[in-house]
Structure formats: structure tokens, C-alpha cells
Design a protein that fits this description.
Layout lengths: L2 E5 L9 E7 L6 E2 L4 E6 L4 E5 L4 E5 L5 E4 L3 E6 L12 H11 L16 H10 L17 H10 L6 H9 L24 H16 L2 E9 L1 H18 L5 H15 L5 E4 L2 E4 L5 E3 L1 E3 L2 E3 L2 E2 L7 H16 L5 H4 L4 E5 L18 E5 L3 E7 L2 E15 L5 H16 L2 H5 L2
Parallel strand pairs: 12-16, 16-17
Antiparallel strand pairs: 1-8, 2-4, 2-7, 3-6, 4-5, 6-8, 9-19, 10-11, 12-15, 13-14, 17-19, 18-19
Length: 415
């Protein structure tokens, strides 16, 4: 009887262990080849393990267990039963979706399309079974809006069993109703490896660098007018919108070329000078902040940058990000403005020597040519390692970014 071991796969030289945060299947069920089986959380990324063959799965490790690379966490009997097992009762499907947020939960439509991460998340929150929802997306796919519409029309209450299973999942992002009641004054949950590593790196960055922050402000009128003028043509040609991040990415590359000290790294008694422009763009996910890197930003056009940022953000939020996507950046841009932040002092993304914080765009009265006018203004914050970067260089860098945003034609002329 051929029985295959399901092992924790290698994820990179720097990762030796993690936490098996969630099973996407239940013990004894029939799985399909390439079906997602479990979610593994490490101190750097979250990844999914998939089935190498179809068959009956037997779980060997409980969710929440710390495992090492190469550990056997389940077995698959490839001779057991037909692959197309009869569907479980609707109530059982709901429990499985609620407890495990199974990425492979089938959408019961003519095309049997898998649920997207957004649909799975909303299904997990509302208790709505996506297999019972009529999809309005492409090819009959169930969308997030479809599930929310059903939830608003007839909110579903998760069963006691699903609440219990959610409570048992150590990687739950929020405390479940079973873990905390309205009368509880406190509740506790264990930090995930990723969240713990983020905390460690933030403290480490402040302890190991002479970090300082310099501020400036930028008038967004020119960029906003440029976007409004060419947005329709840009979308028609490229199939995506022209955002602000591509302008700031280009402006940062321009400024790094003018102030190379910020494109360097401190390494003991040496200084590593970078001569390439791989720019990290911070992305907020349910599991914490991640910084995927846009490679060779100096060689990319605006549309290519917008696409690269969009693709990287989607991978991060869908839990598909890899170590290779996060490593090697020389500078980071973080945009707190999307959450309404007026001003902040961003923390360095070690070993980088600089990070640019963007903030909310607010109309403010400004003095221009002796007249008071209303302009859409944004505060910029540059945090930098003072061991490598002097105040003059930091100010010059911000001025170069400001000039490029307020007069985008400078980017074309490299001045």
C-alpha cells in the first residue's frame, strides 16, 4: 500500500523551524494532488504545504505544534478510496471553513472554482459557506462582495463546534468568542513566529543604529494633475491605474543617485556601497508588515513599477510571499497615509540606511508668491542611520524627492 509522507518543506537556508498554524483538511479525508494541506508560520514568512498526490490523509501533528524542516506531519494513502469523495453535509462544510479557512474549499458551481483568500477570510468571519453562494465573478467565481451580500441579508451564526475549533487555532489573528466573553476584562494569545520576529527586528533596528528622522513637506498638486490628465489613457494602455507610489519610487531612485550615502550599509569597520536600486515597499497584511522588494526600479517604467507593487502586495496579503521577494532591498518606502497618518517617524528596515515615510494628503493654506492658496500637502519623513548619513545629506535627499514630486519633469531630465 503506497503511503507518502507529508513533510515540512525547506523554505530557505535561514529557516529551520516554524509553527504548523492551521490544517486546511481534516483527518481521514480524501485530498487531491496539489491541494493546500496546511499553513506554516515561520519567523519570516507564512507558506502553504500542498499534497504531492491524491489519497486519504492521516494527520500526525496537531495545529499549533512547532515543527522543523523535514518533519513528517501527515501521511497520504494513495490507494485509499476514490479521489472524488461524496460532499459532506452543508453544516460540516461550514465548520471546516470556519475552523481551517481551507483555501481548497470548492465553490460548488459549474466550474468548481476555488475560493480566493479574500472570500475565505470573509467566510471565516461571517460563517457563510461560499459553496452556498451564487457567484457573480468571472466564470461564476464567488467574490468577497457576494459573501458579504449574503451575510447582510441573513447573518449566519457559527456553530458551537466551529467556535471551539477556532479557539484551538493558535494562529488566530483575533480572540474568538469562545476565548473571550463580554464579561472578560482580558484575553491572551501567543505571538506568531512572524509577529515575534517583527517585534525583535524593530527593537534591534533602534538599538543597533544611530537613527534620526528629518522632515519636509511636498505639494502634491502637480502629480495629482498629471494623474487626472492621463489616468484614462494609462489605464487603457496598461490595464491598471497610475498611483502615487510609482512617482515616489522614481523620485527615491533619483534622490539615491544624487545622495549615494543613503544607498550604503554600515558593516562593522566597513561601508558597503550599493550601486543598484532594489526598492522595498511596505505592505500591511493581517499577519503584520512585510516589505517586498521591487527589483531594478531604476530600469522600470511607471506602469512596470505599478504592476510590480500590485503583484507584490497581492502575494503578501495572500500569504504567497517568499524569502526571495523580501530580501536584498537597499531602501524602503512606507505609506502610513493610506490609514490617515499625518506624521510619523518610521523605523529603519535593517541593514538599510534609510526609509521614507509618506503620509496623508491634506489641503492646507500655503503662501505661494505672496498669496495664500489652498494646496494638497503631504508630510515626508526620512529616517536614516546617522553613522553613515549626515544631516546635510538627509536634507538634500528629501529636497530631491520634494522637487521631483512637485515638478515630475525633473525625473525625465534627471535634474
Amino acid at each position: 500500500m503506497p503511503v507518502l509522507d507529508v513533510k515540512i518543506p525547506p523554505l530557505g537556508e535561514s529557516i529551520s523551524s516554524g509553527v504548523l498554524a492551521k490544517w486546511h483538511v481534516t483527518d481521514g479525508t480524501i485530498v487531491k494532488k496539489d491541494q493546500p494541506l496546511f499553513e506554516l508560520e515561520t519567523d519570516k514568512i507564512t507558506s502553504e504545504g500542498t499534497a504531492e498526490a491524491a489519497g486519504k490523509i492521516v494527520l500526525k501533528v496537531a495545529a499549533g505544534t512547532e515543527v522543523k524542516i523535514g518533519d513528517v506531519v501527515a501521511t497520504v494513502d494513495t490507494d485509499a478510496g476514490p479521489v472524488s469523495a461524496p460532499p459532506p453535509p452543508v453544516s460540516a462544510v461550514k465548520v471546516e471553513n470556519k475552523a481551517a479557512a481551507a483555501p481548497s474549499a470548492p465553490v460548488m458551481s459549474s466550474s468548481s472554482l476555488p475560493s480566493s483568500p479574500a472570500v475565505r477570510r470573509v467566510s471565516e468571519e461571517t460563517g457563510i459557506d461560499p459553496t452556498s453562494v451564487s457567484g457573480t465573478g468571472k466564470g461564476g467565481r464567488v467574490t468577497k462582495g457576494d459573501v458579504l451580500a449574503v451575510a447582510e441579508a441573513a447573518p449566519a451564526s457559527p456553530s458551537p463546534q466551529s467556535k471551539t475549533e477556532t479557539k484551538a487555532t493558535p494562529a488566530a489573528a483575533a480572540v474568538s468568542p469562545a476565548a473571550a466573553t463580554p464579561t472578560d476584562r482580558q484575553s491572551r494569545r501567543k505571538l506568531t513566529p512572524l509577529r515575534k520576529r517583527i517585534a525583535e527586528r524593530l527593537v534591534q533596528a533602534q538599538h543597533e543604529a544611530a537613527m534620526l528622522t528629518t522632515f519636509n513637506e511636498v505639494d502634491m498638486s502637480a502629480v495629482m494633475a498629471l494623474r487626472a490628465k492621463y489616468q484614462d489613457d494609462f489605464v487603457k494602455k496598461n490595464g491598471l491605474k497610475l498611483g502615487f507610489m510609482s512617482f515616489f519610487t522614481k523620485a527615491v531612485v533619483h534622490a539615491l543617485k544624487e545622495v549615494p550615502a543613503i544607498n550604503a550599509q554600515y558593516a562593522g569597520d566597513e561601508v558597503i556601497q550599493n550601486h543598484y536600486y532594489d526598492i522595498g515597499v511596505a505592505v500591511s497584511t493581517e499577519k503584520g508588515l512585510m516589505v517586498p522588494v521591487i527589483r531594478g526600479a531604476d530600469q522600470l517604467g511607471m506602469a512596470e513599477i505599478e504592476k510590480a507593487i500590485g503583484d507584490a502586495a497581492k502575494k503578501a496579503r495572500d500569504g504567497k510571499i517568499t524569502l526571495a521577494d523580501l530580501e536584498g532591498g537597499v531602501f524602503t518606502i512606507t505609506n502610513g497615509g493610506i490609514f490617515g497618518s499625518m506624521l510619523s517617524t518610521p523605523i529603519l528596515n535593517a541593514p538599510q540606511s534609510g526609509i521614507l515615510g509618506l503620509h496623508a494628503i491634506n489641503e492646507r493654506p500655503m503662501a505661494v508668491d505672496g498669496q495664500v492658496v489652498i494646496r494638497p500637502m503631504m508630510y515626508l519623513a526620512l529616517s536614516y542611520d546617522h553613522r553613515l548619513v549626515d544631516g546635510k545629506e538627509a536634507v538634500t535627499f528629501l529636497v530631491k524627492v520634494k522637487q521631483a514630486i512637485e515638478d515630475p519633469s525633473r525625473l525625465l531630465l534627471s535634474i
